[in-house]
Amino acid sequence: MIPVATRRRKLGNPLALAVMVLLTERPMHPYEIAQTLRSRGKDTSLKINYGSLYTVVQNLEKYGFVEVAEVQRQGNRPERTLYGITDAGREEATEWLSDLLSVPAREFPIFEAALSLMAVIHPDEVARLLTERLKVLEVQAASARGGLTKLYETLPRIFLVESEYQLHMVEAQAEWVRGFLRELRSGALDGIKEWRSFHETGEVPPEFEELEARHFDKE
């Protein structure tokens, strides 16, 4: 995927975007925001905890994207501050969400990082580890499919698209791992001979050294 530059924003935490979108419905206090996001299943896509959420709301207020709408007092209970979205916040949320939907961003998944460094482990051990991963992915996919089937019975699909996407990503990763495992086990993977040689001799194969030298020459 080729990264495409987007406008740098004052706030980069996706939770800030979720808060602004939620506040377009009505003013809420931070605890209510957290509970609403969780009740709608957004905690499967966003990392939500009250402490970080309160900081996000404070930062949104600092930049003029939300404002205090009301301070509620009920008997001896602590007062609760309700926040509402501002016109600037509506504009920011719309532009930010539009960017995220339309422009592919370069992300750095942990699994991708592990794949880039896996040569330090023997290929047979990598095959064993990926087999374990595949089993977990298959269980996750089966569970997600079952959950979605039930949810389709009670919720419009518009509220389930992120869950569909998550399932698709799990299934796509599982399919890739299956194919890679076939190449590992059959020995068809280009470079596996040198990979094995590295672990058997403890020395970097000449073929890999030549590749690295050519790469640096180009730079």
UniProtKB/TrEMBL annotation:
UniProt cross-references to SUPFAM superfamilies, sorted A to Z: Winged helix' DNA-binding domain
A molecular-function term among this protein's GO annotations: DNA binding
PANTHER family in alphabetical order: PADR-FAMILY TRANSCRIPTIONAL REGULATOR, TRANSCRIPTIONAL REGULATOR PADR FAMILY PROTEIN
Gene3D superfamilies (UniProt xref): Winged helix-like DNA-binding domain superfamily/Winged helix DNA-binding domain
Domain Transcription regulator PadR N-terminal: 19-94
Keyword vocabulary terms for this entry: DNA-binding
InterPro entries from the UniProt entry: Metal_resp_DNA-bind_regulator, Tscrpt_reg_PadR_N, WH-like_DNA-bd_sf, WH_DNA-bd_sf
Keyword field contains Nucleotide-binding: no
Domain of life: Bacteria
Pfam family, one: PadR
Entry annotated with the keyword Disulfide bond: no
Protein's name according to its UniProt entry: DNA-binding PadR family transcriptional regulator
